[in-house]
Amino acid sequence: MRLLSVRRRSTYERLGATQSDGSGSSIAEARLTPILFQLKTSDINGPLSDFQAAVLGNKEEMRRTLRSMNETMGVEGNPNWERTFDVLWPKLEEKLTNLLDQNRIQINFPIEGGILEDAQRSGDKGFTYAVRGTLKSMPKDHSVWILNASKKGEQWPQGSAIYEPASGRWEYGNAKPLSKVPDECKNIATVWARNPHYSP
Length: 200
Known about the structure:
There is one protein chain. By secondary structure, this protein is of the alpha+beta class. The chain folds into 2 domains: about 1-100, no CATH class; about 105-200. The chain is built from 3 helices and 11 strands; from the N terminus they run βαββααββββββββ. Helix 2 packs across helix 3.
């Protein structure tokens, strides 16, 4: 039985295109369990969708996967695996949480309660303002998106920011509004700042 770690869409799309599990055999012929990180089972399509995937942070799905592995091993299996699993699971959960927190997006400017600065004229009546932050790493098929929101619940997606992989810094300038917030936006940071050109 093989385990296949799948972290983002581009990974399983490439695997789906080759239809191989890396050992020279067809994926359709393999005993394989995709282990998903930052993906849902509904995100999987193509050849990998024929297999019962497990989400890395889901205890019962991982228990099911390990049970299947242990049964496949036959007499070489470990009769005490489930007890060990329950003992070690909280440590795995902690490590996963720390891993996700390390790559949580941050807004460094403006600060909470601060004032928007570096205004640039946008059109006849509007302005754009600088927004900067940090992100430890970002897959090449992802983007940093800026959402302009009011405390009344109004919101205007503003577009993507420029990300520098070497420094881990990103910055937003001027961009056209979007029709909606992209569904894939999961890693989110929020800061409330005052617009110097608007008086509520």
